[in-house]
Amino acid sequence: MATKRLKKYTVVLAYPDYVSDEGEQFIAWVKALTVDEGVERAQHQAVRAQKQDRWEKENCPINPVDFDVIVMYRGWLKSLR
Length: 81
Hints:
- This protein is α+β, with helices and mostly antiparallel strands.
- The protein is 19% helix and 28% strand.
- It has one domain (7-74): Ubiquitin-like (UB roll) (Roll), CATH 3.10.20.
- The protein has 1 helix and 3 strands.
């Protein structure tokens, strides 16, 4: 039986309005088995970048799913310009 390999993804997320009202974006480079898993990993990375390592606690104001996906690419893109 073949083992599944992690794929590299570049995920661009939009910060939630309650974190930044200036339309800021977060770029994550993740490895995941599926696209959905890649998005989830990127969202969690974005929360950790906000110093919210304990996002799972009820008192955390930042929810990972509040980071909306703008675009996702297969592979790790170093420049999006």
